[in-house]
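P.,

For your records, the input lines for the assembly:
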Amino acid sequence: MSGRVLVGVKRVIDYAVKIRVKPDNSGIVTDGVKHSMNPFCEIAIEEAVKLKEKKLIKEVVAVSCGPQQSQETIRTALAMGADRGIHVEVTGKDYETLGPLQVSKIMAALAKKEDAQLIILGKQAIDDDCNQTGQMTAALLDWPQGTFASEVALEGDKVKVVREIDGGLETIKINTPAVVTADLRLNTPRYATLPNIMKAKKKKIANMKPADLGVDLTSRLEVLRVDEPPQRQAGVKVETVDDLDSLMNNWTVFHKCTQRTSLCVVLIPLLETVTPEDMRKEEC
Amino acid sequence: VLLQSAVVDSALSAFRSICGEDGVSLAAAVREQHGKDESVHRCRPPDVVVFPRCVEEVSAIAKVCHKYDFPIIPFGTGTGLEGGVGAVKGGVCFSLRNMDQVLDLHQEDFDVTVEPGVTRMALNAYLRDTGLWFPVDPGADASLCGMAATSASGTNAVRYGTMRENVLNLEVVLADGTIVHTAGKGRRPRKTSAGYNLTNLFVGSEGTLGIITKTTLRLYGVPESMVSAICSFPSVQAAVDSTVQILQSGVPIARIEFLDDVMIDACNRFSSLSYPVTPTLFLEFHGSERSLEEQVNTAEDITQSNGGSDFMWARDPETRNKLWKARHDAWYAAQALRPGCKAYSTDVCVPLSQLPQIIMETKEDLIENRLTGPIAGHVGDGNFHCLMVVDPDDPEELHSVHLFTERLARRALAMDGTCTGEHGVGLGKRALLREELGQTSIQVMQGLKDTLDPKNLMNPEKVLQLRRV
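Structure tokens returned:
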């Protein structure tokens, strides 16, 4: 076994930024907006580095596909403990249409080129929420996959993965080489420290183009339009059951704060997606 | 209270044209939310809340308030502990949360400038790729400009200092709308001898001299590694002696926290732990792997020589958190001692050498007056808190606690200390401030206030007691 782990890291708009849609609805504003490593990719890197610290694997290679700035994301991965980086340069229109299909082809090609034992990816990116790259990569390579991992354990030439699924947790054992995608509770990523950031400057980042890997970047998808979610509309407070009754046909009812003496019901338009935060704000 | 309706209408329409329709609120719920913080002081809602988006809007609204003599109350996150945001005389609350940009980060210079809507955790999340952090950590996720206004501090002040040491520059709007840059616009040298220290005049002024709209902060490198430790002691004296000796030995200890036996007992019950019920120190060390080994060994030797026992330490995050669990849950553990009651934290600070005596006398006072007050303290600074757990519906008990806190403050003053180490003066400690500073110093402070805010519009009735004009 090569003991080499490939980790994909994606440069995305920072999670704390308020997203704005371009006036022409063609996409979101990215110029001058803070970008950082996709949080699930941080978790993936952390897991790989932990495996290396436990001496279960030998080398962590961080991979990112994108323009020049993707190198910053690779540098962060190196500061967290990755050994070297690979920057697959994708720019312009190709970058705008870059998606899981293209990235998974790139990852598959790199996995073969680098003789990887394991690929760890974030379960999804916070900009497109696709949750497809890991699965597609495994399919292209015909490798087993352990997705939504909340625990990863290497056992000889197998990997035990505890997966977060709807009903609870599922434990599977898969052969290596394999693809694992990281879920939120897999670990808490370390902060990059200044000494490590300085050391990372000396680590190597190899540059290549998708054509060097024989990958065709043509997209099968075309984005027609991007819109903001509909504006929040005010809820309506209803005093009596009769009023409630007359509104029931068109509206979804949420039973709210039962105070000791009175029943207060707030109706919210059906189009709305109500989040727990919304409910807390509406409390009377 | 805003009286004449023509004046009110005129002012409100001016506010709306400055901040937009959405930027002005008269709603009762919004005003109540902006009239209280996390202290025991009751809610004192302002007459109107405005939400400016930039310093120009803050200045324009201040000019309107100045014209009509409306009180001005700056509001950050409402997490203060001394009633600082209560609109005692009504007026206009400036809620600054929409000014939430991190501006001008200079990594090699270790400085960053932030607006009032940026909280300390938001800043550290922003900085996470840079290897830098801002270490001042009061309990709440407070606004950094608000922390500057109250000269906040945290558990690692013993190594990294308080806001006073870490604010390089401020942008402040005065009561008449004038915009001031306390160290000069955009300036951020690490040290300076230039002119009066205006920056530190406003740090700790609790909104009584101006509205802070930008703060330039000193950043530090994220520690390479951390080790946490815990040690039990036979007496408060032994714990404090250890602290003094650790500091004297040159160990750059990052956190050194003290919990008394009552607090440890509460924590044992709340978190199902089994610490020995005796004064306990919680320590944290920051540094490189090698320096940590040296620091921990030195500290362990010192604690042992003072009768410390059960010295335990841990390096990995999970075990460190387990060791420190008691300290992290202290507030909740104290509240859990009497369900349904509220917790109120006292806050005095004395020279280190006086700490054993003041803690001893305070514990006797608590027992004598049958009050629940487990003690937690930043013992490296001589600062400790009694977490008074009190029934908010029992006026006698509230009164008893009030008298207790005054006795405690006076005890601290008698030992060359201060009536407030971290939380500020706010509404409740103005008389104690007079005792602490003395007539002359208070008069100097009053003079500065009169110069910067002659109409007494800035957060009236805080810090200084109202002087009849």
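Two observations worth noting. The two ends of chain B are 18 Å apart (CA to CA). Chain B has a mean pLDDT of 93.

Regards
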